[in-house]
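Supplementary Data S3. Sequence and structure tokens for construct A.
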Amino acid sequence: MSLPLFPSVWMTDEHRMQQDSVRRFMNDRWVPRAAEFREAGLMGPDTWRDAGANGLLCVGLPEEYGGGGGDFGHEAVILLEQGRANLSGWGGGLHSAIVGPYILHYGSEEQKQRWLPKMATGELIGAIAMTEPGTGSDLQNVRTNARRDGDHYVLNGAKTFITNGQNANLIIVVCRTGPESGAKGMSLLVVETDKAEGFRRGRNLDKVGMKAQDTSELFFDDVRVPVANRLGADEGAGFTQLMQQLPQERLIIAVSAIGAMERALDETVAYVKQRQAFGKTVWDFQNTRFKLAEVQATVLATRAFVDACLAAHLKGELDPARAALAKAWVTEQQCQVMDECLQLFGGYGYMMEYPIAELYADARVQRIYGGTNEIMKELASRFM
């Protein structure tokens, strides 16, 4: 069995060709190293350079900046195949479809020429530092601050739960550059870590799931950042920039959930058809077939919703409320699907050597990062 059973409305022949290429690359080059990545707690710089050389980085950015010249659909194809390959450790989606677009949309021409081509090759690895030890989804209360000192800002603060935190050498930092409280006075500063005295990486955090993903604490102690590294011509535009880009981040989470759900269903159907219990296969029990029919319906319905959101986003019509709902609802379906599938594996489902266990553990954080699902529902309700 292989889902989806119906073609996605947004996919072109080019997307489908890319899909085959990405699937082969991941299965040939990275899946055999999955245990190595989990043991190391990250996918090292060599994998990023490999991704760049094989056209997996910044595929949705313009060719003039080293990108692939595609659209968000090309990024979505990579996210889907990454989910199906059970490679949650790679932070390429954040690098290419979050960090890259911030620089593309708000960076100066000099910034775009300096950073984007190196992001496309994997020489630069991107991260965005929003969350702080005392500030999660409430971005208006960010405390990291940057004081103007001539042609530089002096940056001080701490960030946590930062994806790509151990690998990243180009970090967009959400900070306060003015005395105003709330949404005002926030800016996005780009820290080039190789040149940043006073920048420190904390520990690679030990998480419930996503064991191959480097998720880190970051510290900024009087780090001097050139004013020329601020995104946007005007100081204090950071919160507006964040609000404009967060819908795509939330869609990324929903897309990645679909790939993982489809992998979980395929794994479970294959398992129950060969697993023997009481003289017959687990598939032969009516309860198993009914449960998996329900799971399949959930996966298909969820995929249809995400496809509709993707089609709207590609036309520039995905509003923040629908993106928030997609992130919340899809990730809740993801966790439900993983739970149902793991149950059908019995005790083996609880063993990390089985992909379903890893899929189950990796899914839980999807309801938290990118804005908790409770915050997503609050945002969506404001437009009702």
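Construct B, processed identically:
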Amino acid sequence: MKTFNNTIIIKSLGVALLSTVLLVSSCKKSFLDVDPQGQQPALEFWKTQDDATKAVNAIYANLRTWENVAFPALVIESVGADEADKGSTPNDATFWLLYDTYTVTSTEGSLQSFWTGQYQNINLCNQVLDNIPTITMDETLKARYIAEAKFVRAYAYFRLVRAYGDVPLRLSVPKDASEYNIPRAPKEQVWAQIEQDLTDAAAVLPVTYGATDLGRATKGAALGLHAKVALYQKKWSDVVTLSNQVIGSGYNLFPDFERLFRTNNENSSESVFEIQAELVPGNNDASNSQYSQVQGVAGVTGGGWGFNVPSAALAAAFEPNDPRRDGTIIFRGETTPSGDVIPTAGPNPMYNQKSYVPFSQYVSGFNEGSQQNIRVLRFADILLMNAEAANELGDASQALTSLNRVRARARGTNPLTVLPPVTTTDQASLRAAIYKERQVELAMESDRYFDVIRQGRGTEVFGPKGWKANKNEVWPVPQTEIDLSGGLLTQNTGY
């Protein structure tokens, strides 16, 4: 009998909830097969409420894997934008440049890794959705677990559909060989399923959790992600309705933009959804996030590998004296607000400050910054979605209210001459101001690339880097997937 023991962690206010999920596949039994002591055989799983809890915790744990937050995610969701460059040294991981110049082909490995990571998420969710309904357990908790799985499945499909367009739509675990090989579903069908999952989730998920469950999907997270899904489809009325519900749910902008991204301010009033991570002493397997490590300052103890660095174009995009510039970018030679001195002679002139963990928090033997949560959805994003949709519907007053709320937080206690409120009511001018605000507020958070494409500005913004319309709106489908399907899966146009 083969067994795999996956230790996972949910982080909330410094409390680590550890559980172990045993994923067991069986082979023909013989007298040489001795069941490992203390491990559950597969036939005993999916029986109890504790099994359900372990399975749902495994969903959250998978969100911080290499495929979801490190190289594969960053090349698919970040470096193609004008805000980020490869970083590191010129000859290190040169495949990143294929994404930065839109010359990647279907055989490049990160395409497969990102695809695999999302379908791993979906498979874990589908296991929960297929099996938990039959467990005798607290019915309120059961309903919540099902809603949490639907939220994460929607999030994984959101990442897939904006990266690849049409994708296979799996809504249950395959029961036999005939269900493994399925074609790509039209993106409209995928979007519709995402919306249904989020509608179902929002109807059940709580507004808040107690301290031991912080980091789980909430009603606000489901509504907020649904607003973003509607934004990508230009369903402006839905965006306003959904984002207004989130705005009225008790979220608020954290007062200090730079401090918002530090580990001691995780799960703050601005957090709508974060991928939870933690450094657990003595447990390297649970301390597995490499999100901060791969982007950290290169060449210093406690830094990192120096990939996915801010570009000169991003540094120039901020208005004069915008505090968010220094809250987003670590510059070579500076001293950070946490007191870290950045060497003047390093391989890169800039690094991502939002993924930065102060060097003093480094623990030898662990990934640098493994305790850093990944901010997936912030209240500032909700306000900017609300502003964009309201403007498209001709409601300049609402658009300005939401937009200027974000600018006011960025401005802080500085005089009004720094980041003055936007006052224009001209729709085109206000649209441009909202686009600019999204660029600088959400910089280095894996939104810029897809924002520009959904706004129809790919050629304008990314054309100088080689981006081509009617091709680069999506990445190529991994060739391995096409080969394994026997040609049932088709390739995107132009690849």
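The beta strands are 2-12, 15-25, 84-87, 271-275, 307-310, 329-331, 350-352, 374-378. Residues 291-372 form one domain.
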